[in-house]
Amino acid sequence: xxxxxxxxxxxxxxxxxxxxxxxxxxxxxxxxxxxxxxxxxxxxxxxxxxxxxxxxxxxxxxxxxxxxxxxxxxxxxxxxxxxxxxxxxxxxxxxxxxxxxxxxxxxxxxxxxxxxxxxxxxxxxxxxxxxxxxxxxxxxxxxxxxxxxxxxxxxxxxxxxxxxxxxxxxxxxxxxxxxxxxxx
Length: 184
Description:
Layout: H1 20-26, E1 38-43, E2 47-53, H2 73-89, E3 98-110, E4 119-129, E5 133-142, E6 145-158
Antiparallel strand pairs: 1-2, 2-4, 3-6, 4-5, 5-6
């Protein structure tokens, strides 16, 4: 794959489909871990384009890396998942009772550093859609240059905990076949 790719355009330059308040009604994430600022394109069950304005005040820059701040690649992939989660959760009527969790990251590639002052445009296309899970191709651009790409899979799980204190979902021992899953 080439380092430069044509970035998909929004409906109209800068047009906001969902602002930060609307995103917060859909996603449970909050500062400092809400990594999308607005949504500029949304095609139900197909595609979403989100914007992240990367500020010099982001908390991760103080340690990644002093003197040469770079947005961590794992947070770029998380922003892709959040955009995809917003796309999926718009289809879920009882989304306040659900969480979207990572179940896989494949083919993650980081093409250029994302720096303070950059505007990250995150384009996510659905590869497979099920009622409670989705597989998506995410591409993150700075200007017209591809900064990162990955295939992410996510699953919708209940937000409540059972009587043992464990949440129902892919990472408890019963539903994961004894595998504790790992970090999310």
